[in-house]
Amino acid sequence: MIVGKPLLNTRQIQAKVKELADRISKDYSGKELLAVGILKGAFMFFSDIVRAIEIPLTLDFVVASSYMKAETSGEVKIYYDIREDMSDKHVLLIDDIVDTGITLNQIKERILTKCPKSLRICTFLDKKERREVEIPIDYVGFEIPSEYVVGYGLDYDNKFRNLPYISVFKKKM
Ligand code: IMP
Ligand code: MG
C-alpha cells in the first residue's frame, strides 16, 4: 500500500487553520466557548486550531468511530463522551473531515439533548459529494473531491495519522 500525491502541504494547512481561527475568535468574542474535538481523526487539526484561537475557551473531546478500514460502517460508536457542563456554553464541534455526515450528525444530536447555548460545526475537510445526511457546516477548511485521504490526523487502518501534510491514499493492487 502506498500514499499517493500530496493534496495539501503544511503551509496551505497552517494558513487555513489561521484563517478559520480568526473567524472563530471574532464570532465567539465575549462568549463562553467550549471547543469539542472528535478523536482520533481531529487530534492534529484540533490542537492547531485551539492554539490559533485568540479568545478564552474550555475544551473537551468525543472519541467516536464509524469507519472500518476505508469503508464506512454507518454505525457510530462512542468510546468517550463530553464531561463538561454545556448548559452555559456555546459548543463548537471540531472534526477532521465530513464524508457521509453520519458520524457528526449523531454526535450533534447527542449534544443537542444536553442543551448548549448554541452548537456549530467546524471541519477541516469536506467531501461534499458523498453526503448522505444533510448537516450544515459552519466552518469548512477545504472542500475536496471524494477520494480517500490520509495524514494530518487522518488514517487508513490507524496508520499515516502523523504525516504533517494531507495525501490522497492509493491502495496498491
Ligand atoms: P462520515 O460519518 O462518513 O462523515 O465519516 C466521518 C469520519 O470518517 C471522519 O471523521 C473520518 O474520521 C473518517 N473519514 C472519512 N473520510 C475519510 C478519508 O478520506 N480519510 C480518512 N478518514 C476518513
Ligand atoms: Mg473524524
Compact summary:
The protein has 173 residues and is α/β, with parallel strands linked by helices.
Structure, described:
The protein is of the alpha/beta class. The protein has helices spanning 10-27, 43-52, 102-112, and strands spanning 2-8, 33-39, 57-68, 71-80, 90-98, 118-126, 139-143, 149-150, 166-170. It is globular, with a radius of gyration of 16 Å. The mean pLDDT is 92.
Topology (elements, then pairings):
Blueprint: E1 2-8, H1 10-27, E2 33-39, H2 43-52, E3 57-68, E4 71-80, E5 90-98, H3 102-112, E6 118-126, E7 139-143, E8 149-150, E9 166-170
Parallel strand pairs: 2-3, 2-5, 5-6, 6-7
Antiparallel strand pairs: 1-9, 3-4, 8-9
The protein binds inosinic acid and magnesium ion.
Inosinic acid binds next to strand 3, strand 5, helix 3 and strand 8.
Describe the sheet with the most strands. 6 strands, mixed
User: Shape, please?
Assistant: globular
- Cα end-to-end separation: 8 Å
Which structural class best describes the helix and strand composition?
alpha/beta
Share of helix, binned: 10-25%
What small-molecule ligands were found? inosinic acid, magnesium ion
Number of strands: 9
Task: Give the strand order of the largest sheet, numbering strands 1, 2, ... along the chain.
Answer: 4-3-2-5-6-7
SSE string, helices as H and strands as E: EHEHEEEHEEEE
Mean pLDDT: 92
Low-confidence stretches: none
Q: Specify Rg, calculated over alpha carbons.
A: 16 Å
Number of helices: 3
Roughly what fraction of the amino acids lie in strands?
35-45%
